[in-house]
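# nightly structure sweep
# worker-07 picked up a monomer target from the shared queue
# config: single-sequence mode, recycle default, output format = structure tokens
# input follows
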Amino acid sequence: MNGFAFYASAYLACAVLAVFVSRRLGLGSVVGYIAAGALIGPVLHMADADAGYLEPLSELGIVMMLFLIGLEIDPKKVWKLRGMLVGLGGFQVVLTIAAVTIVAVLLNVPWRQAVLFGCIGALSSTAIVLQTLEERGVLESDGGQASFAVLLFQDIAVIPMLACLPLIAVNHGAAVEGHGANLLSSLPGWLATIATLGAVGAVVGGGHYLSRPVMRAIARDGLRDIFTAFALLVVIAIALLMSAVGLSPALGAFLGGVVLANSEFKHELQSDVEPFKGLLLGLFFVTIGAKIDPMVLQSNWAIVIGATIALVAVKVAVLLPLGRLFGLREDASWMLALALAQAGEFGFVLLSLGQQMSLLDPVGASTGVLVITLGMIITPGLFVLLDRVLAGLELTKPIAKNVGEPDSGAVIVAGLGRFGQIVNRMLLANGYTPVILDYRADVVDDLRKFGVRSFFGDAGRTDLLQSAGIAKADLLVVAIDDPDRTVEIVQRARAANPRITIVARAYDRLHHYRLASAGADHIVRELFGSSVEAAGLALQTLGMHPYEVEKRKSAFVQQDLAGLARMASLVDDAKHIADNDRFVAGFNDIGRVIQEAMLGRRAGYDEIVRRGWNPPKLDDSHAPNHESREPGASR
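# output follows
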């Protein structure tokens, strides 16, 4: 068997296995795709044989990625982050390019290659960094927002990099011809310029005035499959047009995405193009990995490791002072510097283009791929290093140096997002003035303008809790949306003040049990109340009397919360919830009465309802009974 089907099957099989293992190890999908390609190259010797089949197809993944990046540009968010975006992001890209280029030239690297390496080094892995920041719950922090702004600028900066790279190519004429400029080669210069500008105008005007009516007509007729086909046609047609006039297809796709970013079909386009982008982009990374020569790694391993360490050092040296210059605190600056210290996915694109333009030989390209890949692999280690650095800063720096010293208060609220804001407003409306702790400096600044006592800081820090008056406080409300961090805050608050009452926000039923074990008195599942309210509205819409609805809501809440407390002893942290037979059996038993009602046999359910609408008691409804607050007491 040979041909397209054989090569595609081999690539996809290796990719599925390698990406699965890579994700399990926490290294991300890109590293898995590169590993799959590296496996295919030396084992199946397909690195060159399949180029005519898969490489042109895989390059569409880059075009689609730029199209989606353009779609995701939110003008309001860009305007809000304009200072960080243009200032911090711009300085980071320019200074990193300059620093890497200078270091490379001093090491006797030809200046053209040095500039290429500088452009590659200035970029970071958007996918890995944003995913890690989101998993850690710090994407909305100062350091997280600064990282997002710099990553966004880097993604945008790829466009001029792709456009300018042919200008430094050795075979500049051949590179331009490869992009399709031969269609304009017979025209005078001024006419070719007009045609090029006309192509850009066609992308902008067509995206705004032509594609929208077509998509509106397709959507009106409910032709979902045709909408998907049209979305792909838009991306491919833009790429073809840009190639025809000698411009980068990625540039055209990015412009098309920006034009359609405010369209009412933005989300539909994203959902339709995303699966194709993921598959083709993964295929692109596989083809990159397939070009790695094992002999290059064997003979140049010291260079690969040294270059990776040097790149991390240069980027940290650039980003750390820039963060301080743009008003970030020391902890946020370290987060910015270490999070963005690796090279990114677009580096592979620049390496591929550089090899096509003879800026790099195969050995140089393979070495560059290995350096970028190694940087992605060590990114989890850089975040571990970040934790060590932040822990050191916490021990050595007094909190009053970074934030105001909060007054002791009877009530402390940790986190002022959507959940905490409602709690705070209710407390203020009833005459209580809580001390607010939040790790987002912009939120704290805005709240102070409204006269709300708010202070910057991580409520998981024992010193901040002490400064906020945890030892004398009567109540702590933990309203953050990070389940693990919530448990840590409850544990530390309970240790600091065994008598304080703690109200905590729970993510789900299992998180409820963890918080109960940590020492929370009252636990509120974040979506439970609103879901019950929505169900009540549904029953009213179906014709049930409002009073009857309230009675049934009350009965449902009482039964669910009583069952929640009774099942606490069945939780086994060593087993997955679905594999815990006792927990599954208990859950089904508790739901029996409601299940009977759903099946139409409502005798037991109606008997509960007839008892009347008695609001559940707080002590019985939101927490297990705490018989003792002494250490070691059962919860």
